[in-house]
Amino acid sequence: MTQFFRSILEWIYGLVGSYGLAVVCFTLLIRTILTPLEISSRKGMRKMAQIQPKINALQQKYGKDQAKLQQKQQELMRKEHYNPLSGCLPMLIQWPILIIMFYAMRDVANANIVGQAFAFLKGETPAYEPFLWVKNVFMPDSPFKTAAVDLNSLMASGADIWKEALAKLSSEDLNLILTNIQKYVPAAVGLTQDQILNFANSAAVRDTVNNYLMPALSNMDAYKAAIEAVPGWQGVSFILFSVTLYKQWNGLLILPILSGVTQVLMTKLNPTMQQSTPAPSQDGKPAPGSGMNNFMKYFFPAFSVFICLTSNAGFALYWSAINLFATGQSILINKYLESKEAKAALNAGEGTVR
């Protein structure tokens, strides 16, 4: 599935010529395909909001007898023809798609990052993939990250990605890369290509990056210029971490922040989530599950920001875009369901008069 999604993304990129725009188009495609599931989910959530006052009344009446309460709730749901899974199951189905997209974007990013590393090793400045304010969508959207590849991004690329990129190099490029590595890394002198560029497995990749690639990159003029820090802002320590502000920063933290804001917006604009909070129990204590609901309201935005801070800007763009599309889709679907319910109520009333 990851390879399938990656193929679709690269196909769209071939049409539009921009990975950032390709991500937005891909997001719109995914949301369109998932529309039937979204409508089903919204129907279930609206139904739950409608019967929630009756559930609250049962909790007030049978709160001290959990067995009786469960029995009455089941009877109510059968009477109302409501399936508790009708609201959450479609949403759960969408999560694997988000995870698959994460891995697909990671593979695309890793393939391009390895290509950029080889460009630096040839003594060139690679052609980055920009989008709006982001200079390289394959690195995080942050002024504390450079557009250039770094040790963490190179380590994240698996052996298969390295082998794939190595196979695409011409013999002239490969010889130039080996010459530069041996020029800047004395330990590489006298070694063969297979010994220097050994990508047999993850351990071999780690050793190759640490022992040959990063030491060579660190001594090359093009790479040193790309990772130059702003004077006075190198390794600035805070309470739990330290940061470096780069001259050639890669972003402005807009996408990670936007991901958290849009996650909050999705909650605020989803009235069914607001209305479905369980009522307090008879002794005045919060009902079971209300604490979890409040926790999730804050957890998901914080989780979104964290994931997008530590992921490439392409995935952060996908996350933010899908939240925005989902919010707009939610508004339209809710209006559609409201008009449908109003029409059904009107027809029912006319039938009663007749």
Give the structure's gist in a few sentences.
This protein has 354 residues and is mostly helical. The chain has helices spanning 2-16, 19-33, 35-62, 66-79, 85-121, 151-155, 159-167, 171-184, 193-196, 202-217, 221-226, 254-268, 271-275, 290-310, 313-353; strands at 236-237, 242-243.
Describe the fold and architecture.
The chain has one domain (2-150, 227-347). The protein is mainly α. The protein is built from 15 helices and two strands. A hairpin with a 4-residue loop joins strand 1 and strand 2 (242-243). It has helices at 2-16, 19-33, 35-62, 66-79, 85-121, 151-155, 159-167, 171-184, 193-196, 202-217, 221-226, 254-268, 271-275, 290-310, 313-353, and strands at 236-237, 242-243. 69% of the residues lie in helices and 1% in strands. It is elongated. The longest helix has 41 residues, at 313-353. 29% of the residues are buried. The chain has a two-stranded antiparallel ribbon with strand order 1-2.
Q: Give the amount of beta strand, in percent.
A: under 5%
Trace the largest sheet across and list its strands. Answer: 1-2
Kindly report how far apart the N and C termini lie: 56 Å
Domain module count: 1
Count of alpha/pi helices: 15
* Total DSSP E strands: 2
**Which geometry do the CA atoms define?**
elongated
Mean pLDDT: 81
* Uncertain residue segments: 272-279
Radius of gyration: 27 Å
Helicity level:
55-70%
The main sheet comes to: 2 strands, antiparallel
SSE arrangement, N to C: HHHHHHHHHHHEEHHHH
Find the structural class using helix and strand composition.
mainly alpha
